[in-house]
Structure formats: C-alpha cells, structure tokens
Specification:
The chain is about 30% helix and about 25% strand. It is of the alpha/beta class. The longest helix has 15 residues. The chain binds adenosine-5'-diphosphate (2 copies). One adenosine-5'-diphosphate binds next to β6. It is found in: Cell membrane.
C-alpha cells in the first residue's frame, strides 16, 4: 500500500481566511493514522483536499510520493475508499447498494465484501437475500447496518487507501463499538486515515494527530495522549 503525505499544506476556502496553516503529516504505507480535533479544526477539509474537491494554496499532497495535483481524478477515486459519517443508500436492492461503483463484480466478490463488512449473516437471514429492497420503499436498515453496507461497498472497490470520515459519529455507543471493531479489522493492510471527533473512537491507531485550528497540536499513541490529558 502507498504512503499518504501532507507536506506544508496551506489552505483556505476564502483568501482572507486560512484554515490549514502549513499542515504536514504522513500516513506510512499500511499504517493507521487518526486525526482528532474539535469541530471546525479542519478535519473534513483534509478529506476534501485528498479527493481534490479543492486544491491547496501552497504545499503538496503526496500519494506514494506522487503529487496528487498531477494524478488523474479517476485514479485518485480508485486509490481512496471513503467511509463517511452518513452513508447514502439507494432505494434499491442490497446487491445494487454493495456493488455500486463496481457493477461488474461477481457474486463471490460481493459476498466476500459483505462478509468482511460483517453484514453477510444479516443478509443470509433475509428471504430475498441480496435482492432485498432497502430504503424508503423497502427494508429499513439501522444506522449500523447502513454503515456495514457502506463498508462492503468501499471494500468491493478494493482501494489501497481508506479514509474514515467520522464513520461512527452518527451511531449510538453500542453500535459504534461494533462498527469500530469492523473498521479496525478491514483497515489491516490498508493505509488508513481516520478522522474523528473524539479520542475514544480511534484507540487502536498507530499514531494519533491532534488538530486544532488548522495546526497539529500534538501527536502520539492513544495511551500517551490520555496521560497528557
Ligand atoms: P472539522 O471537520 O474539523 O469540523 P472543517 O474542515 O469542516 O472542520 O472546517 C474547518 C473550517 O473551515 C471551519 O471554520 C469551517 O467553518 C470552514 N469551512 C468548512 N467548509 C467551508 C466552506 N465550504 N466554505 C467556507 N468555509 C468552510
Ligand atoms: P464515484 O462514483 O467514483 O464514487 P463520487 O463523485 O461520488 O464518484 O465520489 C468520488 C470519490 O469521492 C469517491 O471515492 C467518493 O466515495 C468520495 N466522496 C464522495 N462524497 C464525498 C464527500 N462528501 N467527502 C469526501 N469524499 C467523498
């Protein structure tokens, strides 16, 4: 898997207001880095820059040593799989929802992704299995089930880099723990950047970066940061 690096990234949505003030960090190949910080710190902005919804005013963002400004949008989309906070499900079958973006996927691939996302036992209990309609006109899924479908969809695309953008923030705490366990498992062998509001949700990260007002305040492992308060 590739390394992701921010190198002195300066960015503001408006020229008069800088949001990221020369931000540098690295997610080493195959490792899990988490970014935590209060609301407004700039966490989601990092994700938007990674997908080039915006470009930095200065500095560079590198994937496997390559400046993403020189990478085709399509390869960027293939390289990074995002699990967002509120995953959008279509009013369609589970099969459609999981295979979305990889319409040519085989049955075996779909089932494997569902299994990895720990939604397969749930699907197997449904009379119509993968053909079950979900959403407004079909089966209502819980928040956790929706996230698992979204995780399966992301895994099926096979991206080497994973971006968890507050992926469990909308869940109740019991469900959050379940989904966290799954995210921890599926992120093995991926370069993973997890963006989170609270320290408790990313306890297993290799490195935790604390972002405040577009600056890195500190970094360390979970236990170190708790000790420092
Ligand atoms: P976080 O994800 O840490 O809550 P964001 O990255 O969403 O923070 O936002 C960082 C700052 O950028 C905030 O002050 C926010 O108000 C501002 N911001 C976010 N999106 C936009 C936008 N589209 N236009 C202008 N300012 C924005
Ligand atoms: P695609 O059909 O290739 O998924 P999209 O335009 O929906 O195209 O998204 C491009 C990439 O950006 C995808 O990997 C998608 O998961 C991701 N993405 C979509 N919405 C957001 C968002 N709000 N924030 C960050 N990334 C997003």
């Amino acid at each position: 898997p590739p390394t992701v690096a921010f190198d002195n990234v300066v960015f503001g949505y408006d020229p008069e207001r800088t949001i990221l003030h020369g931000l540098s960090f690295e997610v080493p190949a195959g490792s899990r880095v988490a970014i935590v910080g209060p609301s407004g710190a700039g966490k989601s902005t990092i994700g938007r820059l990674l997908f080039r919804f915006y470009d930095p005013q200065a500095g560079r963002i590198l994937i496997a040593g390559q400046d993403i400004a020189k990478v085709q949008q399509q390869s960027l989309r293939e390289a990074i799989g995002i699990v967002p906070q509120d995953s959008v499900l279509f009013n369609d079958t589970l099969r459609y929802n999981i295979a979305y973006g990889r319409e040519g996927a085989s049955e075996g691939e779909i089932l494997r992704a569902a299994d990895d996302a720990a939604i397969l036992p749930f699907i197997e209990k449904l009379p119509d299995g993968l053909e079950t309609e979900v959403g407004e006109r079909g089966l209502k899924l819980s928040g956790g089930e929706k996230q698992r479908v979204a995780i399966a969809r992301t895994l099926l695309k096979g991206p080497p880099i994973l971006l968890f953008d507050e992926a469990t923030s909308a869940l109740d705490s019991g469900t959050e723990q379940d989904i966290l366990g799954t995210l921890q498992r599926v992120s093995r062998n991926h370069t993973t950047l997890a963006i989170a509001h609270r320290l408790s949700t990313i306890s297993d990260a290799d490195t935790i970066l604390v972002l405040d007002d577009g600056h890195l305040e500190e970094q360390g492992r979970h236990a170190d940061l708790l000790r420092r308060g």
